[in-house]
Amino acid sequence: MTITLYGIPNCDTVKKARTWLDSHQHAFTFHDFKKQGLERATVEQWLTQLPWDVLVNKKGTTWRALSDERKASIVDAASALELMLENPSIIKRPVLDRDGQFSVAFSDAQYTTLFAA
């Protein structure tokens, strides 16, 4: 099983997901998308399984800092893709890639269910 966790290291939710994976002995690679960036192909893969409006975090400070015009321009997967590549901090974290199956966010119950399958 190959597991990659995408996020930023100082995010509390990412920290919880990393701790959960470690405590359940799941080896994983952490990808800091602020430092390491994101490739278009990676985000395009996410968008095949995850709705763009789930991936774009509209509750965070990054979204609130956008102009109203820029917010209004995010209307579909293509516009959301460009925004996520321009500003990875807008992505809801963490994004988990477990053998090509993607999920976003973290809760103990969510990860318990994901890893039970």
Can you walk me through this structure?
The protein is an alpha+beta fold and 117 residues long. It has helices spanning 12-23, 40-49, 52-55, 61-65, 68-72, 77-86, 108-116; strands at residues 3-7, 29-32, 95-98, 101-104. Helix 1 (12-23) links the parallel strand 1 (3-7) and strand 2. Helix 2 (40-49) crosses helix 6 (77-86).
Compact description:
The protein contains seven helices and four strands, in the order E-H-E-H-H-H-H-H-E-E-H. With 117 residues, the chain is of the alpha+beta class. Helix 2 (40-49) packs across helix 6 (77-86).
Major beta sheet summary: 4 strands, mixed
Average pLDDT metric: 96
Shape: globular
Structural class: alpha+beta
Enumerate the spans where pLDDT stays under 50 for 5 or more consecutive residues.
none
Widest sheet: strand order? 2-1-3-4
* SSE order, one letter for each helix or strand: EHEHHHHHEEH
Amount of helix: 40-55%
- Our estimate of the beta-strand percent is 5-15%
Number of helices: 7
How many β strands by DSSP? 4
Instruction: Give the N-to-C terminal Cα separation.
Output: 12 Å
Oligomer: single chain
Q: What integer value in Å does the Rg equal?
A: 14 Å
